[in-house]
Amino acid sequence: MEYTKLKYINQYKSKSINPAKTPDTIFEMYSVPIYATGHPEYLRGDEIASNKAIVRKNDILLCKINPRINRVWVVSDESGKQNIASSEWIVIRNSEYNPEFLAWYFRTPKFQKFMTSEITGIGGSLTRAQPKCVAEYPVPVLNRKKQDEIVNILDKCKLVIDSRKRELLELDNIIKARFVELFGDPRSNPFGFEKKMLKDTCKVITGNTPSRAIAEYYGDYIEWIKTDNIVSGILNPTQATESLSEKGMNVGRTVEKDSILMACIAGSIASIGRVCITDRTVAFNQQINAVVPEQYNILFLYVLLQMSKDYLVEDINMALKGILSKSKLEEKEFIIPPMDLQEQFSDFVKQVDKSKVKVQKALDETQKLFDSLMQQYFG
Q1: Torsions phi, psi of 292, nearest 5?
Q2: How far from the centroid of its chain's Cα atoms is residue 169's Cα?
Q3: pTM more than 0.85
Q4: Out of 3.40.1130.10, 3.40.50.800, 3.90.220.20, 3.40.50.2000, which CATH number does the structure's domain 2-142 have?
């Protein structure tokens, strides 16, 4: 595929506006904080404190801030109102390109590697991609018909992926609805179940990291699980990328099958409290607390902890580093319904999980196809 530099195709001429000068005007605003919703926000001019870039439909926005997070947005002009964007976006405009084609290219690992290769600042949200450097990065040159064909195929594939993800979410919601039906809200405990501290019903174990200075602690004897292996919505830990030797296992911390692993140290509140159930014996690092049940059905406990996420993180101060310590976790109180009711719920979860496994398999296959297409089209 032929390539040219981004600066040679970018037709955007920077133009800004001070929305505060027209306080009653409603603006369609593209900002980094609202990006995750997938939609712009609508603000009055007097709600916007600083100058913003004027953008229009089909402009492509590349986020400068913390470029390791791949944020690419195509301006959609959803309302027909004045479109504006914050200064944290690099604006790309070209009337001869399909904007979605460029957006797909900008989302590739290949382009993201360019975006993170020449950053300024230190650490996470303080890093910035430099517009002058970005202007030098390569973009593919392809006729419009071929661009449209590629976009059509990738969009259809993405629709299938999104549909599968929605199916998984709905299945999770079915489990949660059944939990509430049988047990109510676990915090308010409307059915009056007995409550105990976690330390009185489970054994809690904090993981560790065998000394990196001793190479013989690392090998291929037992998987060493990290928080990245605890994925929301996936019942069991994913395959670890690193393993310990037998000697490493002896100085590490391990749990057997049917234990809970919980992410207890993370960079965001959203990540703390994620849980999975071990389906094999594993070692795990110090960012994880294992919960080994003594008075709970394992599947009931798994969902109970998911349903108690807000309770688990309510005392965590992210400014002081987000940590749910072993001692704090052990002192949390949870309901203990009768075991026969727990097992009834467990049987229901197992049935739903069979459907989840099928949907997840279909999702994985479609994702693999999508990744293959992206590699084929963009390298």
Answers
A1: -105, 110
A2: 14
A3: no
A4: 3.90.220.20
